[in-house]
Amino acid sequence: MDNSLQSLDQVRASALDMAVRFGPKLLVAVIILGIGYMVGRWVGRFLEHLLVRLNLEAPVRSLLVRVARVLVLGLFAIMALQNLGIELLPLIAGLGVAGAGVALAMQGILGNVAAGLTIIFTRPFHVGDYISIVKEEGEILEISLFSTTLGHTDKSRVVIPNRKIVGEILHNCGQIRQLDIAVGVSYGTDVDVALSLVEEILHANPRVLREPAPVIGVARLAESSVTLRVSPWVNVSGYEAAVGELNKTILETFRARDIAIAFPQREVRMLGSSA
């Protein structure tokens, strides 16, 4: 019984000694972490206002703000550990070795992150733009650190890793696209009348934009027809519908005005032979 009481007294004495020795340091470490949390929030708010001025997308702003807060809190955590007397050099060396191994195992992911940051800060395209790249095209639906998502008119989605985008030739149409409709009329057609009708059709269609002005003219002189070029501008969302509407209206209008839409034809002459 006396031995048990003696052991309990020793434990109490040791605990009291550790509290006296490390209690103030632990309190200071907690205070440092609290200050780091507050500074991280302030840095996050400041960075948020800065990124809003740079017109970055909301998901990207949120991610960068979180990263900044974590970095600030990590810096103050290191200060707190140093205050407790913990040796950081062996810990940092170990983390460095582990980090190198992780980096080798995650080359593809890290490559996507680096490419994502490049896209975020260089801004070659924005959400809502229509782009063509790496044999894919579509409307930008989402930009993240790891990938970029394109939307097609058939409601499907294409997810492209960011490392496949950076360094490639990019065709960015913005938020409008130009149609390229070719109409072949016979050589006997009054071209001025046909072009005037096309201009009226474009003006009546609500999907066709007034600015930029549509491009209308004679594209080429083919074997069996005069090819008219009809190239108005429309919003990305109305591209497919506008193609169908304009083709249908042009066909009906030309039929009503007796303008023949040419088709491939050949003239064959039979030469008689004398007996």
Question: Would you write up a description of this structure?
Answer:
With 275 residues, the chain is α+β, with helices and mostly antiparallel strands. The protein has three domains: 12-105, Helix Hairpins, CATH 1.10.287; 124-174, SH3 type barrels (Roll), CATH 2.30.30.60; 176-256, Alpha-Beta Plaits (2-Layer Sandwich). The protein is built from six helices and ten strands; from the N terminus they run ααααβββββββαβββα. The chain has a five-stranded antiparallel beta sheet with strand order 4-3-2-1-5. The chain has a three-stranded antiparallel beta sheet with strand order 7-9-8, with helices on one face. It is rod-shaped and about 130 Å long.
Low-confidence stretches: none
Distance between the termini: 145 Å
The CATH architecture name of the largest domain reads: Orthogonal Bundle
What is the H/E string?
HHHHEEEEEEEHEEEH
Report the top-level CATH class of the largest domain: Mainly Alpha
Question: Structural class given helices, strands, pairing?
Answer: alpha+beta
Calculate Rg over CA atoms: 35 Å
Oligomer: single chain
Total E-strand runs: 10
Share of helical residues = 40-55%
Domain module count: 3
Form type: rod-shaped
Number of helices: 6
Q: Return the average pLDDT rounded to an integer.
A: 80
Strand line-up in the sheet with most strands: 4-3-2-1-5
